[in-house]
Amino acid sequence: MAADLSQIVKAYDVRGVVPDQWDEKLAELFGAAFVRITDATAIVVGHDMRPSSPGLSRAFALGATAQGADVTEIGLCSTDQLYYASGALNLPGAMFTASHNPAEYNGIKLCRAGAAPVGRDTGLADIRRLAEEWSASGAPEPAATTGTISRRDTLDDYAAHLRGLVDLTAIRPLKVVVDAGNGMGGHTVPTVLAGLPLEVVPMYFELDGTFPNHEANPLDPANLVDLQTRVRAEGADIGLAFDGDADRCFVVDEHGDPVSPSAITALVASRELARNGGSGTIIHNLITSWSVPEVVKEHGGTPVRTRVGHSFIKQEMATTGAIFGGEHSAHYYFKDFWNADTGMLAALHVLAALGGQDGPLSALVSSYDRYAGSGEINSTVADQADRLAAIKAAYGDRDGITLDELDGLTVTAKDWWFNVRPSNTEPLLRLNAEARTRSAMEQVRDEVLGIIRA
Questions:
Q1: What is the pLDDT of residues 287-321, one digit of tens each?
Q2: Beta bridge partners of 419
Q3: How many other C-beta atoms can be found within 10 angstroms of the C-beta atom of residue 30?
Q4: Which residues pair with 326 in a beta bridge?
Q5: First vs last Cα of the chain: how many Å apart?
Q6: Contact, 423 vs 430, CB < 8 A?
Q7: Phi/psi of residue 255, each to 5°?
């Protein structure tokens, strides 16, 4: 009987509990299917520090070699280090990680050569179909010639590539607290930041996929508390927090206060525009702050608004030739990084900006953080479509209000806006609201929540 992989093959990646939902046997089938669907003759494979990652990644490699592809294993790496390898070596790639999910989870992020994403509509659905078929019928017919497996260390080259894009040699000395959350930041940060005028205070750099200190998910405020406390205690200039696979970076200022990813997007956008002669396209999703398109225009750039999700961002980056893109979730995308996301490169930009002037980080980011935002608020609902219709009815006839449905429902007025999006995988509606004042934001937030939760 064929395995039903619908619960673990998501829109953008494979993700599930090991061994309950998937195991090394399925990983081997995924490796074979990946080679079949991409017609790859060679691929690159990396993995994070989770206990199940080495076995799963090796099984995937064996499935790939059985189909005739040569495999370059880069071993322990961050997700953006795997993207670097895919881009620099011009090979399709597979990264074994479950990002910020708890220890019992693992997954695969797949890309074509040059770090081009593989999602449901760009090959992942076909990979799932083949893996399901083979789970019932047995392993696929092997190729006439088995591929080889070789090892390669890409960490130094990855670090050199990033540091070649941001000049930190002339910055003033900074004290930086870094919380790696026992994830892959503990592997990459020491090499990337080595030799710079930085005093790095490490937190939880020991690679441990059981996450003994806190979940490696900085999007949850509870997981920033240790970093915030340490920044204050150390009198540090800045704090950085990475998620489990270290492709996202969150920033706290010298007071320990979180800096919104929208403000980071605006700051990095201004620097990338300056680096590109004061012009260029910047991508932002529709729930980033009003500050982002304003700053982009002020610095000579062209802002382009997209749906939420890395596949939409990367597609728009490629279509428009954009130089940079940012999301509210702290994913940051760079043309000079094969349009892929790298929190480490965004962190280098923030360190360069902070160290290139004398003021504190809170003052530096204040010009990029101009409005009051609610953050993302999730509500469990019985009928997503019904609640969205109720919101549309409540606001549709009001003067001075516009509605659009690019992604969920966005309602915009002169002094505020909000977006409500349904989750694709859970019975949730996600609300993001912003206004010119905190009181106005709280008023519209509470009004919309009243409708959602009625």
A1: 999 999 999 999 999 999 999 988 889 989 999 99
A2: 410, 432
A3: 27
A4: 284, 332
A5: 44
A6: yes
A7: -90, -5
Query: Do 14-153 and 372-452 show the same overall fold?
Result: no
Helix H or strand E encompassing 74:
strand 70-76
**With the CA atoms of 352, 168, 216 and 423 taken in that order, what torsion angle do they form, in degrees rounded to the nearest 10?**
50
User: What torsion do the CA atoms of 56, 119, 73, 34 make, to the nearest 10 degrees?
Assistant: 80
Residues forming the active site:
99
Task: Spell 138-172 as b/e; 16+ CB within 10 A means b.
Answer: eebeeeeeebebeeeebbeebbebbbeebebeebe
Q: Which amino acid is at 337?
A: F
CATH fold, domain 372-452, is: TATA-Binding Protein (3.30.310)
Say yes or no to pLDDT of 109 above 70. Answer: yes
> Tokens at residue 162, please?
């990033």
Per-residue pLDDT tens over the stretch 149-180: 999 999 999 999 999 999 998 999 999 999 99
Closest C-alpha among 251, 304, 303, 296 to residue 270: 296
C-alpha closest to that of 37 among 130, 134, 103, 115: 130
Residue 139's pLDDT band (boundaries 50, 70, 90)?
confident
- Here the tokens at position 84 are 């670097």
- Cβ atoms of 9 and 108 closer than 8 Å: no
The pTM assigned to this predicted structure is 0.95
Q: Are 65 and 71 in contact (CB under 8 A)?
A: yes
Place of tokens 């001075």: 400
Rounded-to-10 torsion of CA 315, 287, 284, 413: 120
Domain residue ranges in the chain = 14-153, 372-452
CATH code for the domain defined by 14-153: 3.40.120.10
Q: Which amino acid is present at 307?
A: R
Q: Are 166 and 352 in contact (CB under 8 A)?
A: yes
Q: Write down the mean pLDDT value for the chain.
A: 96
Per-residue pLDDT band at 40 (split at 50, 70, 90): very high
For residue 415, report the phi and psi dihedrals to the nearest 5 degrees.
-115, 5
Token couple for 247: 């492709």
